[in-house]
Design a protein that fits this description.
By secondary structure, this protein is mostly helical. It has six helices and no strands.
């Protein structure tokens, strides 16, 4: 069974936060998305899907292109090797 894109995006966002030593609370402050909403959006097993505006705000706060949060690891590996 394949994972939903919402789960994959939530995991990627959390991975970036963890790598940079940032918290969901920080992301909430940086994006203006309420902490409760963001927590639901980033739940690791049953996330509520992000809106396009939320994805753009998160990408902006993390200083990455929104597409980076949407791509799977295989795509990243393929793009890096080309």
């Amino acid at each position: 069974m394949t994972r939903s894109i919402a789960v994959e995006v939530a995991q990627r966002i959390r991975r970036v936060l963890d790598t940079r030593g940032l918290t969901v609370e920080w992301l909430s402050d940086a994006t203006g998305i309420k902490l409760r909403t963001l927590t639901r959006r980033l739940h690791l097993t049953r996330p509520a899907g992000l809106t396009v505006d939320e994805l753009n705000a998160i990408a902006g706060a993390l200083d990455v292109a929104p597409g980076v949060l949407l791509r799977d690891d295989q795509s990243d590996a393929t793009a890096a090797s080309e």
